[in-house]
Design a protein that fits this description.
Elements (H helix, E strand, L loop, with lengths): L12 E2 L3 H10 L1 H4 L9 E5 L1 H11 L4 E2 H7 L7 H10 L13 H11 L6 H14 L3 H5 L2 H9 L5 H28 L2 E5 L7 H5 L4 H4 L13 H19 L5 E2 L11 H6 L4 E5 H7 L7 H4 L3 E5 L2 E8 L1 H10 L5 H18 L25 H13 L8 H7 L4 E2 L20 H20 L5 H14 L2 H6 L7 H16 L13
Parallel strand pairs: 1-3, 2-4, 5-6, 6-8, 7-9
Antiparallel strand pairs: 7-8
Helix pairs in contact: 1-10, 3-10, 7-10, 18-19, 21-22, 21-24, 22-24
């Protein structure tokens, strides 16, 4: 479960609403559904930068333009505000969401035809955008939301406020619900490096060449292993404060790993990590896929201690993440079970660990009913199968200790086993160069800033080290991530009292 740190830490404004909207659509229901399936034990990874921003909403420490314009009375909207709403309040899957609600679809068609909206249209759109982003099972748990859903149009300002107030109610339930399931033992919670950076690239951007010798690199090398260690340590500390226990496992951001990051993980108290199967076969120098090796935990035995690493089955994970949304839910679940049955047959009388690891939020908007039809079908079958036990990672490791030692962990991520998604074009490397220039200024400023300013400046650098900014460079359709990255770097220079470089005023 992940969102990058969007908020401007100087103005407290969040330029995009994705923490709030994914909070109402994904983070609560994905764990709450397990109450119906006590045999399903799952591992959830929650990124600290996401949880911090959820807390910001609950503590009213964030200004969300989308929320502000949703609350604003439709009759009082300015022409600019109306334009913003028309351009942004259809930001949800058209085929699996908008088309299922006739009034929302009517408004969508009206926009497509450039037809004028009246005040009631704007009010209905304010309601529908925020109502559609609430998970359908969550919606159905509130009688007042069900009435609004059935009414469909001619909403009142009071009904709109009811929907918007529910957003904050839902956000309030997320962390307590995870904590409840954690305490019951049905789930395990793991963490990420705090602001979701690519740890190997923080240690040294030249590490990208270990995974792809032809990767384009920045002219100015970024090499701050201390930042990688800090992002891990801050995450562990935050997790303990939030959930009362230390995390045993960590999902390195984008499952990106290298040998260089292993000692820092061990020193932080992390016991196991997860990464992609491509890293296993590269580390063992195997040309062919070997499931005998894939379906077991492995050990990274080092002088400073031991770290267990598990490797996900990419094919099975991607079936859920990318394929099954186009199939009937029952057929998709049956297909998945057939794969598991084949694996069980192939490894008869052997205890093996098949790891499914995937994105926690983005897949479900491509499924009917936000994925619940499929998940109910799958969880029912998994609960009934006599050849499978669904466990958390730490539950498995308590029963079966790893025996195979990997002498050197190859560098790479779960995207094609390399770091090209964050490095290999001229826009991405330019962003790394701008980050390196700013990071050097932080070192220069250490002797002149007071403790509070220094901590804020370091936080801003750590935010800018997040993976998402680099992911989108060269393929960002709206330019939002470019603007946010430059906003974060500009704020850094404001914090340390230096002039903002002119290049940060131009799109990268």
């Amino acid at each position: 479960m992940h969102q990058p740190y969007y908020k401007d830490i100087l103005t407290q404004e969040s330029p995009v609403p994705w923490v709030r909207l994914h909070g109402t659509k994904d983070y609560l229901d994905m764990v709450a559904i397990l109450k119906n399936y006590p045999k399903i034990h799952q591992t959830f990874n929650v990124v600290p930068s996401l949880l911090e921003q959820i807390d910001d909403y609950l503590n009213r420490n964030v200004k969300d333009k989308y929320l502000h314009l949703s609350y604003k009375e439709a009759a009082a909207l300015t022409s600019e505000e109306k334009k913003f709403i028309i351009n942004n309040f259809f930001s949800i899957n058209k085929e699996k969401v908008i088309l299922f609600h006739p009034r929302y679809y009517d408004l969508y068609l009206k926009r497509q035809k450039n037809q004028a909206f009246n005040t009631q249209d704007y009010l209905d759109l304010q309601v529908w955008f925020n109502l559609a982003w609430i998970d359908p099972t969550t919606r159905n748990s509130f009688e007042d939301l069900k009435r609004i859903l059935v009414k469909e149009r001619f909403f009142t300002e009071e009904e709109k406020h009811l929907v918007l107030d529910k957003h904050l109610e839902i956000l309030e339930e997320i962390i307590p619900t995870y904590k409840k399931f954690l305490e019951s033992g049905q789930i395990e919670l793991t963490t990420n490096p705090y602001y979701h950076p690519i740890l190997p690239l923080l240690c040294n951007t030249r590490t990208a060449r270990q995974a792809n010798r032809r990767t384009l690199l920045p002219e100015l090398n970024f090499q701050y292993p201390q930042d990688a260690k800090s992002q891990v340590d801050e995450a562990v500390k935050f997790h303990k404060e939030k959930f009362g226990v230390l995390p045993l496992g960590m999902w390195p951001s984008e499952e990106s790993v290298s040998e260089r990051i292993v000692p820092g993980l061990i020193e932080s108290g992390i016991k196991w990590i997860v990464t992609d199967e491509a890293i296993l076969f590269k580390s063992l120098k195997l040309k062919n896929r070997d499931t005998t090796l894939l379906y077991q935990p492995h050990l990274l035995k080092r002088k400073c201690g031991n770290l267990t690493v598990i490797f996900r089955d990419r094919n099975l994970s991607d079936l859920i993440g990318f394929n099954y949304s186009n199939m009937d839910s029952s057929e998709a679940a049956e297909d998945f079970m057939a794969h598991l049955k084949n694996i069980s047959t192939a490894f008869k009388d052997k205890d093996i660990l098949v790891t499914i690891a995937m994105d926690g939020e983005n897949a479900w908007e491509y499924f009917r009913y936000d994925g619940h039809e499929f998940l109910n079908e799958l969880y029912s079958r998994l609960s009934e199968a006599d050849y499978i036990k669904v466990v958390t990672v730490s539950e498995y490791l308590k029963m079966f200790e790893p025996s195979n030692n990997i002498k050197r962990l190859c560098a790479g991520s779960w995207i094609f086993g390399n770091f090209d998604k964050w490095m290999n074009n001229r826009h991405k490397v330019k962003a790394w160069e701008y980050l390196a220039l700013a990071r050097a200024k932080l070192e220069e400023a250490r002797g002149s800033l007071d403790k509070e300013k220094l901590e804020l400046a370091a936080k801003q650098i750590h935010i800018a080290e997040g993976s998402d900014w680099f992911w989108w460079y060269g393929e960002d359709p709206t330019g939002d991530f470019d603007k946010m990255f430059r906003m974060h770097l500009s704020n850094f220079y404001r914090i340390i009292g230096k002039d903002i470089p002119g290049y940060l005023e131009r799109e990268i």
